[in-house]
Amino acid sequence: MSKKNHDSDVAFIKALAELLQENDLTELEVMREYGEDDSLNVRVSRQKHITMAAAAPALAAPAAAPAAAPVAAAPVAVEMPEDPASHPGAVTSPMVGTVYMQAEPGTPAFISVGTQVSEGDTLLIVEAMKTMNHIPAPRAGTVKRIMVDDGAAVEFGAPLIILE
Q1: The domain 87-163 is classified under which CATH number: 3.40.190.80, 2.40.50.100, 3.40.630.30, 3.40.50.1110?
Q2: Per-residue confidence of the chain (164 residues) as pLDDT tens digits?
Q3: Own/partner long-range contacts of 17-25 (Cβ < 8 Å, ≥24 apart)
Q4: What is the pTM of this model?
Q5: For residue 30, how many other CB atoms are within 10 A of its CB?
């Protein structure tokens, strides 16, 4: 394989890694055909270990696996950014559902960046199976970052906010 193909393959693999992170996927596999006897097989994966606890942080960070490459090319390791769910102040979703930032449309949001909250204050609502589940603050602190948009779908263990 030529140097030109190798450089474009590295850029392609990096783009796949970004796609994996942006869409919260755990694995992505692609085969790229260059010609009859020239192809690139790429598998990019990561592992997510999420520990649910009211006041304890999730301890594991995602790991990036090296991409599988054809015999003619060397494997390329892809470095993934740190998972927000591993942040010590992360409040994660206890269920799959839809996030709502306010109690009713047209009312003020429960929180915004910089809001001071007390333990037990409602941070947001996750609707699951037509039930509105208020997500309480696990401890007192300041909202540093909101990781979800109003009306967005969330998965179990997905980071919702960063509370410090």
Answers
A1: 2.40.50.100
A2: 445 566 777 787 788 778 777 777 777 777 777 777 777 787 777 665 444 444 444 444 444 444 444 444 445 444 444 666 667 888 988 999 999 999 888 899 999 899 899 999 999 999 988 889 999 999 999 999 898 988 899 998 888 998 88
A3: 17/44, 17/64, 17/78, 17/79, 17/80, 20/44, 20/45, 20/46, 20/80, 21/46, 21/80, 21/81, 24/155, 24/158
A4: 0.48
A5: 14
